[in-house]
Design brief:
The chain is α+β, with helices and mostly antiparallel strands. It folds into two domains: about 90 residues, Orthogonal Bundle (Arc Repressor Mutant, subunit A); about 150 residues, Chorismate lyase-like (Chorismate lyase), CATH 3.40.1410.10.
């Protein structure tokens, strides 16, 4: 009788120990795993101010959590000012000086006009002497130093849909040409934070043209296909004109949207 009673008593104790082992009030919550993942990538330098954070669906698949869990983590990080979320354009690593004004200069969209996330790479960066044309556009002396950047914009990271070529007055962003400096998706965030060059306004001219052979190869289209071309002059606080840019985009996958006046 005693032996019969001791066995279930032993099993109950074992069951209690197993439950006690699996229940851990200090166990990390799923949304905290997402927060730590993003913070670790920022701390390591993999993601820097102005960089586009992976989308909610990408983080959901990567970390094997629900989109709702990712969204909760993003909400918390946004409240901590570590990231900035812009509807339709994605979530960016931020700092306390990062706000919506950064996006006043980036109104690219899909061919239907809806906002899209565009990832940027910078395969070319160098200091060069300004040609006669660039000197004219930047209102500087012929042969003066400028920093040249050539950037590619992707939706799917397979084929670029835009090519950006920009020339900066060297003294405004001296050092930007160094490969050791990470250029984020949102270039103006870096220019503002690291070079104290705060872009406040720009003038733009939008035109259409056809792709030459070189552009067609980059954008994965046929020579002679239509392209959209955006010419921009950018001005910085207390520095005046600092950048001239030419952006060429696929007409079938790229659009530019602007608002005139204040919508009611």
């Amino acid at each position: 009788m005693l032996m019969w009673m001791s066995r279930p008593l032993y099993l109950n104790v074992l069951s209690f120990n197993q439950n006690r082992h699996t229940y851990n009030p200090m166990k990390k919550k799923l949304y905290e795993t997402v927060i730590d993942h993003i913070k670790d990538r920022i701390a390591s330098g993999e993601l820097m101010v102005g960089d586009l954070v992976p989308s909610e669906s990408q983080l959901s698949q990567l970390l094997n959590v629900s989109v709702g869990t990712v969204r909760k983590a993003i909400d918390i990080l946004e409240g901590e000012k570590l990231i900035y979320r812009h509807h339709g354009k994605g979530t960016y690593v931020s700092d306390y000086g990062f706000d919506n004004s950064m996006f006043n200069f980036f109104s690219y969209g899909s061919s239907s006009g809806s906002s899209i996330r565009i990832y940027k790479t910078t395969p070319v960066r160098k200091k060069i002497s300004a040609t006669a044309e660039i000197s004219h556009q930047l209102e500087i002396e012929h042969g003066a130093d400028v920093i040249y950047l050539e950037r590619m914009g992707y939706i799917d990271k397979k084929h670029p849909i835009i090519v950006e070529k920009s020339w900066w007055i060297a003294e405004a962003v001296e050092g930007l040409q160094k490969s050791s400096i990470h250029i984020p998706d949102l270039l103006y965030a870096l220019v503002s934070k690291q070079f104290d060059t705060h872009i406040t306004s720009s003038k733009e001219i939008l035109t259409a043209n056809i792709a030459d052979k070189h552009t067609a190869e980059i954008l994965d289209i046929k020579e002679g296909d239509p392209v959209v071309i955006l010419n921009r002059h950018s001005y910085a606080k207390d520095k005046g004109l600092v950048e001239y840019r030419i952006t060429t985009g696929r007409a079938d996958m790229f659009s530019y949207t602007t608002t005139i006046g204040t919508p009611e």
